[in-house]
Design a protein that fits this description.
Elements (H helix, E strand, L loop, with lengths): L5 E5 L5 H10 L5 E5 L11 H17 L4 E4 L2 H6 L3 H5 L4 E3 L1 H11 L4 E6 L1 H6 L1 H6 L6 E6 L2 H7 L6 H16 L4 E5 L7 H8 L4 E4 H15 L12 E5 L4 H12 L6 E3 L13
Parallel strand pairs: 1-2, 1-3, 2-9, 3-4, 5-6, 5-7, 7-8, 9-10
Helix pairs in contact: 1-11, 5-11, 9-10
The structure holds D-glutamic acid.
D-glutamic acid binds next to helix 3.
Length: 275
């Protein structure tokens, strides 16, 4: 069981930021990554649809025998925060809780900003979790065009900065001292976001915070891969073109993803990766 892979799921390639952070901290772990490119992007979709797509992918990962589920997508995590833990026997790690905990311990003035897709911000998942602490004031803003920029490989143009200025102005005026980057793609825009917010605002990124949570859970549940484990990283996509996934993965992450298999989630699942 311990040498079974960690199952990582995202709407597409953005969750590779989380996979990369996990593999940096846990190099002996095998990973099975599914990007639901057939339904990507999740951000603008109704939350009920996102929930249905996400459950299909998670069911698929569990059928593959993963030892843990990581919901790397913020929109999917927002849509099914409680459901996934009730549905599966394996531990489920999502991206919102870890980022919220770090933001809570980072803020000095109690004013926290959150940015994400329309789905994530509209669900109020981050806001509700942060506002459990009555001392905190939360300022949330959807930044839908950020995903488009990152997927186009544009992170440093004048247009990116102009759009960032527009999206982030209310958060700057609200005097937040901590900003949660609540989307898989936003780590690629940290330069622009930090430039606009100013160096005194701390940025909390869900990829590294989630990787720490994965580490913590594997250790505390005695699920770490064995010392002699030979790690395998397998990437699957649900869309009809592996080339699109690879092209975007290479643009975002460099060459570490070399091969992508196409799978179907839901009723029919054809491939078994770790038999
Ligand atoms: N992965 C999504 C998230 O973190 C961003 C991309 C999408 O809209 O599907 O919210």
């Amino acid at each position: 069981m311990n040498d079974a892979p960690i199952g990582i799921f995202d709407s597409g390639v953005g969750g590779l930021t989380v996979a990369r952070a996990i593999s940096a901290q846990l190099p002996r772990e095998s990973m099975l990554y599914i990007g639901d490119t057939a339904h990507s992007p999740y951000g603008p979709k109704p939350i009920a649809d996102v929930r249905r797509y996400a459950l299909e992918v998670l069911d698929t990962l569990v059928a593959e025998g993963v030892k843990m589920l990581v919901i790397a997508c913020n929109t999917a995590s927002s849509a099914m925060l409680r459901d996934a833990r009730e549905r599966y026997d394996v531990p489920v790690v999502e991206v919102i809780g870890p980022a919220v905990r770090t933001a809570m311990s980072t803020t000095r003035n109690g004013r926290i900003g959150v940015i994400g897709t329309e789905g994530t911000i509209g669900s109020r998942a981050y806001q509700d979790m942060l506002e459990v602490n009555e001392r905190l004031e939360v300022f949330a803003r959807a930044c839908p065009r950020f995903v488009e920029f990152v997927e186009a490989g544009v992170t440093d143009s004048a247009e990116v900065l102009a759009v960032a200025e527009e999206y982030l102005a209310p958060l700057r005026h609200a005097d937040v001292d901590t900003l949660v980057l609540g989307c898989t793609h936003y780590p690629f825009l940290e330069g622009a976001i930090s430039y606009v917010m100013g160096p005194e605002v701390s940025l909390v990124s869900s990829d590294t915070e989630t990787a720490k949570d994965v580490y913590r859970q594997l250790v505390s549940r005695d699920l770490l891969a064995g010392r002699d484990a030979a790690p395998r990283h397998v990437y699957e996509a649900t869309g009809d073109s592996a080339d699109d996934f690879l092209r975007l993965a290479h643009r975002l992450m460099g060459r570490e993803v070399t091969d992508v298999r196409l799978v179907q989630t839901g009723a029919i699942h054809v491939l078994k990766g770790f038999e």
